[in-house]
Write a structure and sequence with these properties.
By secondary structure, the protein is α+β, with helices and mostly antiparallel strands. The protein has one domain. The protein contains four helices and six strands, in the order ββαββαβαβα. It has a three-stranded antiparallel β-sheet with strand order 2-1-3. A three-stranded mixed β-sheet has the order 4-6-5. The radius of gyration is 16 Å and the shape is globular. About 12% of the residues have low confidence.
Length: 145
């Protein structure tokens, strides 16, 4: 799963979860992606920097700073439960995340769902290489609920 930061034509910002960036494009072209606030189908991806940690501390690409409102706000509890279950079915590779993500991306190992930590520099390098990953809000992590 990939989390994209999105905005509608009226400026409402929200997150969208997709299997791939191609899947986001396909759904957007069919007007299946709409703003949860105003139902506007003119949705675009916006730049997102999701790795934020104190200087010298490793970034956990499975977490982001807590938003003012819970990430699950407005989502039905069944959807939140399904998202948490999907995340529970990922392999936590810890600080090996950059190494494992590269192996998967370059098809050195079979694909699998992983999560873990990366420093801000490692996250930038992965992004520069075109390796797609997303930070997960703490409210969806298995060890927080």
């Amino acid at each position: 799963m990939i989390v994209f930061e999105l905005a509608c034509g009226k400026g409402h910002r929200f997150e969208g979860w997709f299997a791939s960036s191609e899947e986001f494009t396909r759904q957007r072209e069919r007007a299946l992606v709409t703003c949860p606030i105003c139902n506007d189908a003119h949705v675009e991806r916006i730049p997102s920097a999701r790795v934020s940690v104190p200087k010298g501390a490793p970034a956990d690409v499975s977490t982001t700073p807590a938003p003012a409102e819970p990430v699950a706000a407005g989502l039905p509890s069944e959807v939140v439960a399904q998202l948490r279950e999907m995340i529970r079915n990922t392999e936590n590779v810890g600080r090996r995340f950059p190494e494992e993500a590269r192996k998967i991306h370059y098809e050195e190992v079979p694909p699998r769902a992983i999560r873990g930590q990366a420093s801000p520099e490692e996250a930038k390098a992965l992004n520069d290489e075109g390796i797609e990953f997303a930070s997960l809000p703490p409210s969806l992590l298995p060890d927080t609920h």
